[in-house]
Structures are given as structure tokens and as C-alpha cells.
Amino acid sequence: VIDDLANKAWRRATKEEPEGRELTAFLLPLVGVSGTEGNVQLAATPRQAPYLDEYKLIESFRAQRLLIDVGDGQVRLIHEAVLRYWTDAAGWITSSRDFLKTVARMRLEAEGWEASGKPAISARGKRLTDKVSAAAAILLEHDRAWSFDTSTPTFQDKRLRDYCLALFSKAKDPRAVVTRLEGDNRSYVNIAASYGLDDLLKRFYKTDPTAFDEIFESSSRASPPLLHAAWSHHDTTQWIADRVKDPIGRARDDWPAIAGPIQRGRRDIFDVLMAAARTKVNGQSLEELLRCPNQTSLLHHAAWAGFLEFVESLHKDHGFAVNQPEHRGLLPLHYT
């Protein structure tokens, strides 16, 4: 019964199967760990998830009474049985066991670090390298919940995030990569951009400026640092856009960096990237220069996100056509 209810809730929210990064992003904030063995326990997470996809999932699972409100704007799974009898969740916990143990160990370290007054990181050599790698892995898996400047993690998660950020600030190689639970990887420079770590980015740029212009990760969705910063961090986005060769910041799957702030309603970041794009027009229209996958325009995605401000700006200020169809013949109006 639980398996059926969970799958129904998932498909009602996403129309897809529960797997990969989406399953990790949904479950990780709801799964706590305790002890060095990473014993699984229920955890609360903010109901208002930063991404629309996760918010829809939370509301769908609430509707099926698999998630309950626990006060302070937070929700948690109704019972550990959901993790045992929802097949996809049980499989995720099994495959993520080593990572969950790392999280448990780092939580204990974070408690001690905070109790000692958050001292400067003293580890050196291989011990420091290993700690930075562990911190990078945790920051990466939690990036959808922790990396935005509007993120509101729980007290325990904030302590872990702060400890991981203190460790990660000691990273030296922007091209070092850490592997996600589902197999693809992310570079240190992109993690730093996602979290708006300006001081670390400046150190990375001093030692390896070309790392900001290249895509050297393995994922088919890999993208440059500018795109990662553009989801949430205005100053970081401006700093990178002023230095890279291509301020369009296009990912390997053809998304331009400016799509992120449109989806998140960040007009300040949108304006930075639109101004940067204007310097690269060279006879093209902005609409063509900033074309998105499947022949969609930014106007399609602004309409889908429901931000009238962006729709009006793209059409009135930047000349985007309201009657331009995408690959299926759908107009921006159809995306509303």
C-alpha cells in the first residue's frame, strides 16, 4: 500500500519515475542519520522547497498523507515505514549508505567545531584533502536545499553546512571533481560558484583562470561556473560574467545561464546577464543568441515560470517575439 501511495504521489507531481538526482533531492532532506554507522531516522525539512519540482513533490506527498506538518513551516515523513516499504526509497538508502555514514560523521565533527567556537581549520596534508573532499560531497548533494542565498536549512543542517563550507574554503584545485550518488560529477569551481564563495573563486581564478571558461565534467548536463552562480548569487554572477570569454554561460545540454534567474524570479541577476549578452550580439538577435533547448525561447520559460515581469521585459525591452513557436509548434502562451 505504501509503495503504491508513494509512487502515485511521485507521478502526480512529476509525471516521471522516481530516480536519479530528483529522488536524492527529495529524500535527502527527509532522511536523518545518527551514529557513526549512519542509522536512518526521520528528519524535518522546510515545506517551502527552493525548487518548484521539490515543492510539487512535497505537496503531493502531503496530499497522500505520507508527509505531515510538524510546525515552524516544516514537514517530515509520517513514519519510517515509508522508507522501508517504498521500494525506490529503500533502494536509495541502500545505495547511499556510505554517503549517509559520512554525513553522520561530519555532523558529529560539526557539533564539536561549533562547541569550540568555530576555530580555523587546522588539518593539513592528506587529512585536509580528505576532509575537503567529504565536505564537497555533502555540499554537492545538498546544493538544491542549501546553496541559494534564500535557503533556510534547519538548525542542525545549518551547522553542518557552515562546517562543510569552512572546510571547502581550503580547497586548492578548481578542477578537482566529486562524484554524485547517481554517478555524474561536479568540479570544485562549480560548487564554489553554486554557493557564492567569492573569496575561494578569486583564489581559483588567480591560479587557473581558464577553469572558468571550460566545461570539463563528465555529465551530459555539465555547465560552466557562470550558470551555477546565476541561480542565486548576484555579486558572484557579476564577477564571473566580467571575466569569462563567453558570458552566455551555455551548458552542455544547451541551456544558457540566464534561464536560471528567470525560473527563480531573480530580476537582478537577469539584468546582469542580459547586459552581458548584449556585448556578444554581433548581428544576431538576443532571442537567437539566448535560444534554449528544443527551439524554445526565454519567453517560453518565463511564461512557464509565471513571472509576468520577465515576460514583459523580454518582449517590450528586448524584442522577444510572442508568436515564435518551439519545436512542437507551441507558443509562449501555451506555456502559461
Average pLDDT score: 93
Tell me how many strands there are: 7
Order of helices and strands: HHEEEHEEHHHHHHEEHHHHHHHHH
The major pleated sheet works out as:
3 strands, antiparallel
Regions with little confidence, pLDDT below 50 for 5+ residues: none
What percent of residues are in strands?
Answer: 5-15%
Structural class: mainly alpha
Head-to-tail CA distance between termini: 35 Å
Measured as a percent range, the helix fraction is: 40-55%
* Radius of gyration, in angstroms, nearest whole number: 21 Å
How many H/I helices? 18
Strand order, sheet with most strands:
3-5-4
Overall geometry comes to globular
Blueprint of the fold:
Layout: H1 2-14, H2 20-27, E1 31-34, E2 39-42, E3 45-46, H3 52-63, E4 67-71, E5 74-77, H4 81-85, H5 87-95, H6 97-115, H7 125-141, H8 143-146, H9 155-168, E6 177-179, E7 185-187, H10 188-194, H11 198-207, H12 225-230, H13 234-241, H14 259-264, H15 267-278, H16 286-289, H17 298-305, H18 308-317
Antiparallel strand pairs: 1-2, 3-5, 4-5, 6-7
Helix pairs in contact: 1-3, 6-7, 6-9, 7-9, 13-15, 17-18
Output the keywords:
single chain; mainly alpha; two-stranded antiparallel sheet; 18 helices; 7 strands
Describe the structure.
There is one protein chain. With 336 residues, the protein is mainly alpha-helical. The chain has helices spanning 2-14, 20-27, 52-63, 81-85, 87-95, 97-115, 125-141, 143-146, 155-168, 188-194, 198-207, 225-230, 234-241, 259-264, 267-278, 286-289, 298-305, 308-317, and strands at residues 31-34, 39-42, 45-46, 67-71, 74-77, 177-179, 185-187. The strands form three sheets. A three-stranded antiparallel β-sheet has the order 3-5-4, with helices on one face. It has a two-stranded antiparallel sheet with strand order 1-2. A hairpin with a 4-residue loop joins strand 1 (31-34) and strand 2 (39-42). The longest helix is centred in the N-terminal third of the chain and has 19 residues, at 97-115. The protein starts with a helix and ends in a 19-residue tail after the last helix. 40% of the residues are buried. The mean pLDDT is 93.
